[in-house]
């Protein structure tokens, strides 16, 4: 029993599927110690169960390891990744739109200032007439891109080793950017250049197994994930006339 406790890996502890693993997790929960208190209370409740027949040294060791879980979670590289989601299903949020960053202007504006703005709105319009809008043209992507949450099952790690992303009890989703027409020509490029839309990969900190590992040991690390669709251009060869 003691040996199994000593070999306990914090990475193998399952967090609830609702535990946020994105940048939207409020950092104040770490600063005021709420999580530490929750973990301590859970540990005490767990160790009081009659199924846990531990010696005094085993009890102390397990309690010590569980108390370090707070700092392990707090400093874990995967926790604040905006484009990684772990859960039972595909999320329906857009990680590029952070609602928490939108200022709540009305709640911060006093009633006195509201009256001032109302009373002086007509004078402000007279003294600052609206400027004539400039002509604008709709923007268009050079390479059309599909943005979506996607399960990455097979990829490679930072050292180019083939890996399998763990998708067992909960699924890991990456917000990917893929070319609509990979290897197709880019839009709006001068005819003096050959252009091609190509997918580029970035790095995401995920939970995986290396394919060449005989023990298939789960581990955290950086793996390749679709990051953006880029336009690759090369000058055309124009022979001298």
Largest sheet: 4 strands, antiparallel
* Number of strand elements: 7
Low-pLDDT runs:
1-25, 102-126
Distance between the termini: 84 Å
Shape descriptor reads elongated
Please bin the fraction of helical residues: 25-40%
Instruction: Specify the oligomeric state.
Output: single chain
Whole-number radius of gyration?
A: 27 Å
Strand content: 25-35%
State mean pLDDT (0 to 100 scale). 77
Strand order of the largest sheet: 3-4-6-7
Secondary-structure class: alpha+beta
Give the number of helices: 8
The H/E string reads HHHHHEHHHEEEEEE
Core attributes:
3-stranded antiparallel sheet; single chain; 241 residues; disordered N terminus; alpha+beta; 7 strands
Sequence-ordered SSE layout with sheet pairings:
Blueprint (H helix, E strand, L loop, with lengths): L1 H5 L21 H4 L2 H14 L8 H12 L1 H6 L9 E4 L17 H4 L2 H9 L1 H7 L17 E7 L2 E3 L5 E4 L5 E9 L13 E18 L8 E17 L6
Antiparallel strand pairs: 1-5, 2-5, 3-4, 4-6, 6-7
Helix pairs in contact: 3-4
